[in-house]
Structure formats: structure tokens, C-alpha cells
Amino acid sequence: MKTSRTGSESETPAVALRRRAEGIARGKTFRIPENMESLSVEAARQMLHELRVHQIKLEMQNEELRRAQEELNAARARYFDLYDLAPVGYFTLSEKGLILEANLTAATLLGVARGALVKQPIFRFLLPEDQDIYYRHRTQFFETHLASSGQAGEPQACELRLVKMDGTAFWGHLAATAAQDADGAPVCRVVLSDITDHKRAKAELQQTLESLRKAVGTTIQVMVSAVETRDPYTAGHQVRSANLARTMADEMGLPQEKIDGIRVAGSIHDIGKLSIPAEILSKPTKLSEIEFSLIKEHARQGYEILRNVESPWPLAEMVYQHHERMDGSGYPRGLKGEEILIEARILAVSDVVESMASHRPYRAGLGINAALEEIEKNRGTLYDEAVADACLRLFREKGYRFAETRSILGPINRV
After folding, report:
1. pLDDT per residue over 168-196, tens digit each?
2. What contacts 24+ positions apart, CB below 8 Å, involve 231-236?
3. Cβ atoms of residues 312 and 262 within 8 Å
4. What are the CA-CA distances from residue 357 to residues 27, 179, 234, 303, 366 (Å)?
5. What Å distances lie between residue 333 and 296, 325, 339, 349, CA to CA?
6. According to the model, what pLDDT value does residue 412 have?
7. SS3 content of the chain, % helix, strand, coil (to 5)
8. Cβ neighbours of 334 (radius 10 Å)
9. Contacts of 295 (CB under 8 A, 6+ apart)
10. SS3 of 48, please?
11. Which residues, listed in sequence order, are joined to residue 159 by a DSSP beta bridge?
């Protein structure tokens, strides 16, 4: 059996209000009007009580309405701060591109009074060269909105240049969200941000990077020339190895940033030979064990030369590892498998292929077929399988050939 709730728990707001009013009325004393002689004293008293209770209820309701109005005014003030004084512009566009409403920030960004914005076509504030961008995005936006049955979906963004009333232009980022007006017609809610400073900083950064890349290219060409002056018999070896390594990396689908790094590292992978006596580098007979051990030091010496060079790529480590082998039999550290950078694995194959195919002081060139057989035979053992496969495809299926060039200054400047 259910227990009944107490009066305070079951009272409706109206009942509670009357109870409060009656409590106040009981504490008041009222005079009975003289023209109410036909009523009994008790009846008149009851009628006056009811009127007084009703009056008090109205006064209490008015007080609650007053408080509600104050809260509403405070909420409107907060909305004004959040909407009108937001750090970004807000406006609503019709399907035809008319501005239906806008906040103060949007009006300030466009240099016009907010009232003057309403019913204006947005294209009036777009740089003529960028209006096609706007039309393209607007068409796509509303087509997507219709296809999604009116659902808001993810905001769609674009960047274009807008023109203020005084004729000055600025870069704007527009993020649009689909909505509907009171009649159910599709509209576009747009958030507008001024990104002029961001665009300017980005352009300056790009210009700085371009200058840096040109400087890196010039420096690398000097390094290449220095190595080849010391070791004329390997003239062009680094350049040809670098071009093959770059093409292999592209064949493997590596990101452009890695491809650029491989190209640069390949162009200076033998820079450590600057520390080796020239008579050993150009010796026409077979090297002794001691001489060969000195030659093997060039990878470590190259690392020492490059390790403090600021670069977007791990050039020093790539040069350090280009004689390592997948099974750990390489030098100087005996790295194996995934311990070796993918860039160094690519350089290892390109270095072997170019070296075997070309002439050396102590032997004639063995030819490209012998070089490819070496790679195929040791695929997966000494050389990375994917790298070896890319190399074999390039020569056997895609007609790759070594170029005769000895200069990389131009290409590196465009890295």
C-alpha cells in the first residue's frame, strides 16, 4: 500500500502560492465596509479575506515576474558579451548569399555599421579574384546540406580575401555550418576570423625556408666538390647515387620530405673521405687490410662532420648508417634490421649499385647487370627487400639509367 506524501511534497505551485498568501493575510486586520449590511459579518469577512489573498497572490506573482525579467535582462547582457563582442565575426547567410544577421565583430571586421550589413549580398565584401572560391564553396555547402536532410554536419571552411568599406583587403577564414530559419529554409551560420597576420607570417616563413634551402644547396655542392677533388676517380659517384636513391624512394611511395632528405644525404654520403689520405683513395692496386680499415672510417668521419649541422633531416645518421646491412654484417656499428633508418637502407643499395657499375682506381666497372645480380642475390639478407625490389623494378622494368651529370646545385636549391 502506497503512503501518501506530505502536503508540502504534493502541492502545486498555485496551491503553494495561495497557502503563502493566506499566511500573510491572516496577519493583517481589515475593516468591514458599512455598505455591506446585507452580508453576515462572517460572510463579509470571508469575502474580504479572499480578495486580500487574491491581491497578495498578484503582488507575489508580480514580484516573481520582476525577478524573472531581471534575470532575462542579465542573460541578454551576457548574450551581448558572448555574441556581439566575441573575438570572431558571426553572421547568417541565406541560400542566395544575403546577410540576414551579424554581430558587432563582423561589422567591425568589414568596416561597416551592423545595420547596414543586413540584406547585403556577401559577395560585395569579397575580393573579385576570390569570388569564384566563395561561389564554389557556397554551392557545395548547400548541396551537402540538402543531401544530409537538413542535418548540420561538420563545418566547411575556406580561406579568401575580403574587402572593407574603405577598400582595404584582409585574409579571412570562414567556417560555415548548416541551419534552418524560422520557416524551415536553409541558412548558413558563418564564423569569420581575420587571418591576415597568420598569412603574412606563413609567407615570411616560406621565404626564409626557401633562402635556407638555397644556402643548404650551395653548401652541399661545395661539400660534393671537395670530396670529388680529393677522390677524382669517384667523380659523380655521390650525385648518381643520390639520384638513384631519390628515384627509389619515390618508387616506394615515401613522403616527399623523406625523399628530399635522401637526396641531400646521398649527395654527401662520402664526405667522411675528406679525412682519408688522397693516396689511399686513388691507389690503383688492391688496398691492404690497414688501408681498407681507414676507408671504412669514412662513415664515422662523415657523421662527425655533419652531426652539428642544423637540418630538417637526420643527415648525420643517414651518412653514418649507409654501410650497415640488414643482417648486422655491415659497418661501423653492425646495426641490423629496423635499427637502420629506411633512408640509410635506400642509400646502401644505391651506393652498391653505382659503385659496382662504375670504374674504380683498382678495377674496371663491373657493369649494371652484375650490380643488379648482387642486389637480387642478397635481397632480404644484406639489403632491405622493399628497397631491393624498387631498385630492380627501376632498372629492369622502367628503364632507369645513370645520368652523366656531376652537378646537383640546381636540383638541391629546389629541395
Report:
1. 999 999 999 888 888 888 888 999 999 99
2. 231/270, 231/273, 231/278, 231/281, 231/282, 232/282, 233/281, 233/282, 233/359, 233/360, 233/361, 234/270, 234/281, 234/358, 234/360, 235/406, 236/404, 236/405, 236/406
3. no
4. 115, 67, 12, 26, 5
5. 11, 10, 11, 18
6. 43
7. 60, 10, 30
8. 12
9. 273, 276, 280, 281, 287
10. helix
11. 173
Amino acid making up residue 69 = Q
Residue type, 279: E
- Please report the pLDDT score of residue 135 as a whole number: 87
Q: Which three cell numbers stand for residue 206?
A: 616560406
- Residue spans per domain, the chain: 7-83, 89-194, 200-413
Q: Cα(241)–Cα(245) distance, rounded to whole angstroms?
A: 6
Q: Three-class SS of residue 270?
A: coil
The answer, as to whether pTM is greater than 0.85, is no
Angle between helices 342-357 and 385-396 (to 10 degrees): 40
* Cα gap 280→292, rounded to integer Å: 9
How far apart CA 186 and CA 150 sit, in angstroms, is 7
Please tell me the distance from the alpha carbon of residue 138 to that of residue 124, in angstroms, as a whole number. 15
Superfamily of domain 200-413: Hypothetical protein af1432 (1.10.3210.10)
Would you say how long the chain is, in residues? 415
Question: Which CATH superfamily hosts domain 89-194?
Answer: PAS domain (3.30.450.20)
Taking the C-alpha atoms of residue 400 and residue 76, their distance in angstroms, rounded to an integer, is 72
Rounded to whole angstroms, how far apart are CA atoms 394 and 390?
6
